[in-house]
Specification:
Shape: rod-shaped
Radius of gyration: 21 Å
Number of helices: 2
Distance between the termini: 67 Å
Strand content: under 5%
């Protein structure tokens, strides 16, 4: 019987730190070709997750801005 791994919430800042660590490793001359491919695969997954998080944050900000604009328009109309 295999234990299911609990999915942790995505931590953008942690993913960025991990990407920086990957870049540091790739910049060293001691990385084999196989390690390079593995690091590249890991980095692409983290980049995709970061992109998804950034797009979600952008959507939230746009929603907040739209709500603020509506509230300001209502205030102007009621003034």
């Amino acid at each position: 019987m295999s234990a299911k791994k609990k999915e942790q919430p995505f931590a953008f800042e942690e993913a960025m730190q991990e990407l920086n660590a990957i870049l540091d490793k790739l910049s060293s001359e001691e990385v084999t070709l196989e390690e390079t491919v593995e690091l590249y695969a890991c980095a692409t997954e983290k980049i995709a997750a970061c992109d998804k998080a950034l797009k979600a944050a952008q959507l939230r900000i746009e929603t907040i801005d739209e709500a603020l604009e509506r509230a300001l328009r209502e205030d102007d109309e009621n003034a």
